[in-house]
Structures are given as structure tokens and as C-alpha cells.
Design goal:
The chain is an alpha+beta fold. The chain is about 55% helix and about 20% strand.
């Protein structure tokens, strides 16, 4: 009984079962019609003509054909309508409308197909939405990245780039790299859209299929480049490049290496002299008290030189770390210039250098300045000027009031008639340990190489500006502009 019920449900819920039942019904109807039509002729003499019987059969056939056609048309409509709905829904999905659904409530295979189709479209719609969300998320990440990201296909064409990457492509579009083949002939690279500075690295990644990290120098900038291959199914289909501007890091690293090398060089000479002259004293090489005093004097001078170097290094470190203490108060610049002039007057006479100063009548006051730091600025500049000015020449320190862009300044100048500085060295003289020429080498000047760097930092702490002009064998002029008003007053005036 259960088997019979199962077969009945299975056949009735299927299109094939419905079609089979319909055909059986049509056959039964035809047979019944034939039976009822020939019933009156049972046990009756077939005396009638055969023509009448043929006509009767023809009429019955027509009736059966019409009934069969009617039922077939009805059945085909029941099957064709849901199929057309499925086709329309599939066309909508093909055009990007993933919310299309098929409303079929039958319980046969077509109904199951419609339910499966609706479930598929729901999953597809969810998958597309998830992919769009992931794409938007990735796009937001790429836009917010400070690094430039560019994706290339296997032919070197750009298929994706964030705004920074697109900007870099525009900047590097004019670079063309030409590679040499094994025969030495010039061969243009096949990667047409890869920017010139990246082509060599891109070719290596495409040839070896491995990650590559490199640094590229372009127009005085240094770029850190990381390229990774893109693979799909074991096949190399392109590469993605991530680029970062590391110019500042590169400069800082170079500055650190130069700083260590320069400090080592600065300390090595006095240490060698201290060691050598100390050994001479220990070995009792000095033949007379005068020679011993001379050796002791050299040791003392070199120890002072090392002390100045260490002091300057500590000052530079505190200034660059922002830990230097500034005591701002009203300061009369004229008094500082006179005091520094008296301090260097004897030293200048010993070297046969004329030292003068020029000041306007009355006071020349800054509202917020550190008196000790201003004296240190002038001390470093005058010390440099006297050491590099030959005998018979002069040095002049001057100060005057100045107005620029409706702001009041004190203009200080230290002008010497010394050896001068080459023009190509002028942009670098405020760097630590920078030596312009042989006249400013260690053996003759005795400086630490940090004086001008300290001057620049102190000027900046006073919110001022320093400039230098120089000509070989004609002298050098340092010009400083220091604001008269305090920094917070200047900011308030600029806002108003």
C-alpha cells in the first residue's frame, strides 16, 4: 500500500507523470467514444454501406484529434509559462538585476527548479553584495594609504592604482629605460605602461616569479619599492608594486653615518696628540723644562678642544631634541654687541685684525630674547670671522632696526674681509661638521665644525632667520633678522 502511495505521489508530482496521465486519459476517452459509437451496431446486421461506417470513423477521429489538441495545448501552456518566467528572470540576472525572483507555486519538477533558481539568485545577490563591500573596503584602504600601490598585468599594463600610485605614474611617465640585449644592441622593453624607474625590477619579478625589494633614486628622491608577483592557477599573471618615499629616512640615515664618521674624525686627532705627548712625558723625552712645558701646553690645548667639541655636541643634541632652556626677556642688543666686542678685542689685536661695531643711537631692544643665547650667536660668528680673517683686515659687527611685511626686526650683521666661502658650499655651511675649503680645515682653524649649526638653531629658537653672502678673497657677511616682538604677539597680529 505504501509503495502504491509512493508511486502515485511520485508520478503525480512529476511533469512526466502528468503527461502520461493526460495521454492515458485521452486514450480512454477515445476508446469510450468508439465503444459508445459502435454499441448500437453490436448484433446488428452490417447492412449499411461501408461509406457510412468510414464517415462515422472519420467523425470520431476528428473529435478525438480535437480533444487531444485541446488537452495538449492546455498541458503545453502549463509547462511553457513557468519556463518563460525562468527565462525572463535569467535575462534580468544577466543584465545585473540580482533581485529577480520566479513566482511558481507548483509542486512538480518545474516548481523545484524555480525554488532552486530563487535560492541561487539569493546566494548570488549576497555574494555580489559581499564582493562589492569587500571592493569598497579595499578601495577605501588603498585611497587612505600614504604609499603608492600599482598593479600590472603580465604585459605590464596598469590595471589598478590608488590615487598616490596614479600621481606617481603621471610623474614618472616621461622616464624611458632602454635595456641592452646580449649582443649589445639597444632593445626597447616590452612593458609599455610600466614607469621607467620600475621596469628593471618588474622584469626581474616576471622572470623569476619572486618578491623583490629595492630602492629607486628619481630626481633627488629615494623610493622604497616592493614588488610581488600575482599568480593564478600556478600561472604568473602580473605583479603589484608598493612604493614609499623614503627620502627623509635616507637623508637621516646618511646624516647619522656622516655624524658618526665626523665625530670619530674630530675626536681621533686630539686623542692621538694627547696619547703621543703623554707618552713623550712618560718616557721623559723632553730634554729641558721648556720642552716639557710645551708638551704640557699642547696636551692642555687639545683637552680644551675636546671639551669644546663635547660641549657643542651636547648643545646640538639638546636643541634638536627640543630640550634647550630659553629664558625670554626684554634685551638691549646694543649692550650685547658691546660686551662681545670687548671680549674679542684682545684676541683680534693679537692676530692684527681690526674689530669694529656700528650701532644706531639709543636702545635696540627685543621684547622676548635669551641674552645668553644671543651672546653665544655673536661669539660663534666672531670666533669664525677672526680665525678666517688674515692680518691687516677688518671685521665689523653692526645692528639696526628693520621693518618687513609690517613686522619689526633687529638686523644683525657680522662682516669680515677674510678668505670667503665658495658659492657651491654656501647652502651647506650650516650643516654639522661641514668644511667649505682647505682654508677651513681642522689643522688651521681649530674649530669643532658645529658653530654655525648651533647658530642656526639658536636663531630659529628666536623665530628669526639667518642668511650668508660671501665671495672668495673678499669676505663673508652673515645677516640675521630677529623679531622685536614676542612670538605670541606676532601670531595675534597675523590673525587680526
Amino acid at each position: 500500500m505504501k509503495l502504491w502511495q509512493f508511486l502515485v505521489d511520485k508520478l503525480w508530482r512529476s511533469v512526466v507523470g502528468k503527461l502520461w496521465a493526460t495521454i492515458m486519459l485521452l486514450v480512454a476517452v477515445v476508446l469510450l467514444l468508439l465503444g459508445f459509437s459502435f454499441l448500437q451496431y453490436i448484433d446488428v446486421n452490417f447492412g449499411k454501406s461501408s461509406h457510412e461506417i468510414k464517415v462515422l470513423f472519420f467523425i470520431i477521429a476528428i473529435i478525438g484529434f480535437l480533444l487531444s489538441t485541446l488537452f495538449a495545448f492546455f498541458l503545453s501552456r502549463k509547462i511553457q509559462q513557468p519556463l518563460l518566467q525562468l527565462k525572463e528572470a535569467a535575462d534580468s540576472i544577466a543584465q545585473g538585476d540580482y533581485r529577480s525572483r520566479v513566482r511558481i507555486r507548483s509542486s512538480d519538477e518545474i516548481g523545484d527548479l524555480a525554488n532552486t533558481f530563487n535560492h541561487m539568485t539569493e546566494q548570488l545577490d549576497k555574494l555580489i553584495r559581499d564582493l562589492n563591500d569587500e571592493k569598497d573596503h579595499l578601495s577605501s584602504i588603498l585611497r587612505s594609504m600614504g604609499d603608492a600601490v600599482i598593479t600590472f598585468n603580465a604585459e605590464g599594463r596598469v590595471i589598478l592604482a590608488n590615487p598616490q600610485g596614479q600621481l606617481l605614474i603621471n610623474q614618472w611617465s616621461g622616464f624611458e629605460l632602454v635595456w641592452n640585449d646580449e649582443d649589445g644592441a639597444d632593445e626597447q622593453t616590452p612593458y609599455g605602461s610600466v614607469p621607467g624607474p620600475l621596469r628593471d625590477s618588474f622584469q626581474k619579478v616576471m622572470n623569476h616569479g619572486k618578491d623583490l625589494a629595492d630602492k629607486v633614486h628619481v630626481h633627488n628622491h629615494v623610493w622604497s619599492v616592493v614588488l610581488a608577483p600575482l599568480k593564478s592557477g600556478g600561472k604568473l599573471r602580473g605583479a603589484v608594486a608598493v612604493m614609499r618615499n623614503v627620502t627623509e629616512e635616507f637623508k637621516l640615515e646618511k646624516l647619522r653615518r656622516d655624524f658618526v664618521a665626523n665625530v670619530s674624525h674630530e675626536i681621533r686627532t686630539p686623542l692621538s696628540m694627547l696619547q703621543g705627548y703623554s707618552e713623550a712625558l712618560l718616557d721623559d723625552i723632553a730634554a729641558s723644562p721648556e720642552e716639557r712645558d710645551e708638551l704640557v701646553q699642547v696636551i692642555y690645548d687639545e683637552s680644551l678642544r675636546m671639551s669644546r667639541l663635547v660641549t657643542d655636541l651636547l648643545d646640538m643634541a639638546r636643541m634638536e631634541a627640543g630640550h634647550v632652556e630659553m629664558h625670554y626677556q626684554p634685551v638691549d642688543v646694543s649692550l650685547i654687541i658691546k660686551r662681545v666686542h670687548r671680549k674679542f678685542q684682545v684676541y683680534a689685536k693679537e692676530r692684527d685684525v681690526k674689530l669694529d661695531y656700528q650701532l644706531p643711537p639709543g636702545e635696540l631692544t627685543m621684547q622676548a630674547a635669551d641674552e645668553d643665547r644671543l651672546e653665544q650667536i655673536l661669539t660663534n660668528l666672531l670666533d669664525n670671522a677672526i680665525r678666517h680673517t688674515p692680518a691687516g683686515k677688518s671685521i665689523t659687527v653692526s645692528a639696526q632696526a628693520a621693518v618687513m611685511a609690517d613686522k619689526r626686526y633687529v638686523q644683525l650683521q657680522v662682516k669680515d674681509e677674510g678668505q670667503g666661502i665658495p658659492s657651491e658650499d654656501l647652502p651647506f655651511i650650516f650643516e654639522r661638521f661641514y668644511k667649505a675649503d682647505k682654508a677651513r680645515k681642522r689643522g688651521t682653524s681649530g674649530g669643532t665644525g658645529l658653530g654655525l649649526a648651533i647658530v642656526r638653531n639658536l636663531i630659529e629658537l628666536h623665530h628669526g632667520h639667518i642668511d650668508v653672502q660671501s665671495m672668495i678673497d673678499q669676505g663673508t657677511t652673515f645677516t640675521m633678522l630677529l623679531p622685536v616682538e614676542a612670538a605670541h604677539n606676532l601670531s595675534k597680529r597675523s590673525e587680526s
